[in-house]
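Consider the tokenized backbone below.
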């Protein structure tokens, strides 16, 4: 009886792993991995993705992020927040704070030094443009088309800094 149980136990453990024991399984897997790496090299530039936690947002376009024990000031690429005393400067800062502070995020740093903050796989700069709390800064970057369309939508709908109230205040 003990031998039968031992044989059954071995079969239960060994049979699910039999594809991994075959030599050609690992060769196919290695070929697939190398093909994926080559595809990524051709289609994408190098991107560093670092997990961190946002500690504060000093302005509507910058954050202080904790990366392990290190703290880093990050100016978000492609956006420009209103400065004091411009209309909605405080609201822009508060908007970025409420979106990111004390949240786990990904700092995405591209080869050209462009930096983006991702929260739940969404770009924080694009979200701020969508809410009308920042403007595009006119720089060239990877997400320029997306940013332009987000700002255009905010302008057309008169949201945030594109509202009539801000236009009146800024013209004074």
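A designed sequence for it:
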């Amino acid at each position: 009886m003990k031998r039968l149980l031992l044989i059954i136990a071995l079969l239960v453990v060994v049979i699910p792993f039999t594809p991994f024991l075959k030599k050609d399984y690992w060769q196919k897997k290695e070929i697939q991995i190398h093909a994926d790496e080559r595809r990524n090299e051709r289609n994408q530039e190098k991107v560093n993705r670092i997990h961190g936690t946002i500690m504060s947002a000093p302005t509507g376009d910058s954050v202080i992020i904790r990366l392990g024990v290190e703290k880093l000031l990050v100016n978000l690429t492609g956006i420009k927040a209103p400065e004091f005393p411009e209309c909605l400067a405080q609201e822009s800062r508060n908007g970025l704070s409420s979106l990111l502070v004390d949240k786990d995020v990904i700092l995405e740093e591209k080869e050209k030094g462009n930096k983006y903050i991702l929260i739940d796989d969404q770009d924080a700069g694009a979200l701020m443009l969508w809410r009308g709390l920042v403007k595009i800064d006119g720089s060239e970057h990877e997400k320029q088309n997306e940013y332009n369309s987000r700002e255009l939508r905010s302008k057309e709908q008169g949201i945030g800094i594109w509202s009539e109230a801000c236009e009146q205040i800024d013209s004074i």
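Residues 58 and 93 are 7 Å apart (CA to CA).
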